[in-house]
Specification:
TIM Barrel; 17 strands; binds zinc ion; about 25% helix; two-stranded parallel ribbon; alpha/beta; about 20% strand; globular; 12 helices; eleven-stranded mixed β-sheet; single chain; 3 domains
Length: about 400
């Protein structure tokens, strides 16, 4: 069976998240949107773990569900921040961890609690280097999966500009051998990542990293896997199959860290500044500080092969945001949400609407036209930078078609 999956979300106990997140709200909204399998988020946090144990029922080994909404399944997942010194520089990198069961999770909790306060934040800070951390995790259980998160984003991405590693091998040393899967993050797509030869045998998954259960956040990027029976081990072996999984991706330009730039919040004149990696100037013309280096710059610096990789992924954007662009108003307006839910119920979920072969039913001609422009790749984003999302633009004139191809070319 085909499962739309989102392996990286957060609970209300991580910093900057909505306090309305519950297993019930995740299950309800995922069911409407058409997501079949999710990480629980924050499973090392005692309060969230208590909620998971209370609310979830076991479906199969390592897979759980909320009884009132059995279509949506969960597996135990958290994100951690590893903090360590590398050549005298302090490094802070995020990793997603997936666990096969509660007893292994308990053992991991006992181990990690020696190196950080797991009760403080849903995404705990662990003061340990990757080799020491991952070899111990693998000793507890070989089938714990360790996934470098949003690998190219400037903050906390292992290959991001603030981490400043030359390669994943440099960052991880011998513990690189434990990595089978990486997460692309919103500002990078598989085309960009496939320019890095050290990741040739590593599969790429896409997740939302959602901080709320709103429809434009949860499952905004996702991974499609195909397995016979939903068990933890089947899911893990599916995501390791480099050529078998398919991902739903933001256009990298849409993400918050594509170009180099400075957010207007940094400036007294309240003006933004952004530029492409081809711009030689690395300092901001307004404040003279170093610009936040985006994902595209990092790819330019790190790429060591040209790989024309255009398979196994598809660009999407949050359908609710598209509805707002047509109707006006915001993603929080009741009438927009109502239109969205109605549209999904008529079309068997959001991902089905993005399927090239599907015909869309039950919405305004204007919206159908816009959805088809997206499906036919007739759109682009003004690039995001320094925490500012990119802005959607449609291409109605065929002569601009070349703009839709990836900016790396
Ligand atoms: Zn993160
Ligand atoms: Zn500046």
């Amino acid at each position: 069976m085909n499962l739309i999956s989102d392996f990286h979300i957060h609970s209300k106990y991580s910093g900057g998240t909505s306090n309305k997140i519950s297993i019930q709200s995740i299950s309800r909204n995922s069911n409407i949107k058409g997501i079949h399998l999710l990480g629980t988020g924050d499973c090392l946090h005692y309060k969230w773990l208590e909620e998971l144990k209370k609310t979830l029922t076991t479906y199969s080994p390592g897979i759980f569900y909320y009884e009132k909404i059995p279509n949506v399944k969960f597996l135990l997942q958290t994100e951690i921040e590893l903090i360590w010194k590398h050549n005298l520089e302090l490094k802070k990198v995020h990793f997603v961890l997936l666990f096969p069961d509660y007893s292994i999770l308990d053992q991991v909790h006992d181990f990690l609690s020696k190196y950080g306060n797991l009760d403080e934040d849903g995404r705990p800070k662990i003061y340990l280097d990757p080799e020491a951390c991952f070899s111990n995790l693998k000793e507890i259980s070989q089938i714990i999966e360790i996934i470098p998160a949003h690998i190219l984003t400037p903050y906390f991405g292992i290959l991001g500009s603030k981490s400043n590693f030359e390669s994943m091998k440099e960052a991880l040393g011998s513990s690189f051998r434990y990595i089978n899967v990486i997460e692309s993050g919103l500002s990078a797509d598989p085309f960009m990542i496939r320019q890095l030869s050290e990741l040739n045998n590593i599969s790429i998954i896409s997740n939302s990293d959602a901080h709320s259960t709103n429809f434009h956040r949860i499952g905004r990027e996702a991974t499609l896997i195909n397995i016979k029976n939903i068990t933890y081990t089947n899911v893990i072996s599916a995501i390791k199959k480099t050529n078998k999984i398919r991902t739903f991706e933001f256009k990298p330009q849409a993400g918050k860290y594509f170009f180099n730039g400075h957010n207007k919040k940094k400036h007294l004149n309240r003006l933004h500044y952004c530029c492409s990696p081809t711009c030689i100037e690395s300092r901001c013309p307004y404040c003279n500080e170093t610009l936040t280096k985006g994902v595209l710059s990092r790819i330019y610096e790190l790429r060591d092969q040209f790989f024309d990789y255009r398979e196994n992924y598809q660009y999407i954007l949050p359908l609710l945001e598209l509805i707002c662009k047509i109707n006006g108003g915001t993603v929080y307006d009741k009438n927009n949400i109502q239109d969205y839910i109605e549209l999904l119920s008529k079309n068997r979920g959001e991902y089905n609407i993005w399927n090239k072969r599907s015909n869309i039913d039950g919405c305004s001609p204007n919206l159908i036209k816009s959805i088809n422009l997206i499906k036919n790749n007739k759109f682009f984003f003004t690039p995001g930078y320094d925490g500012v999302y990119g802005q959607l633009k449609f291409i109605r004139d065929n002569s601009f078609e070349s703009k839709t191809s990836c900016a790396v070319i």
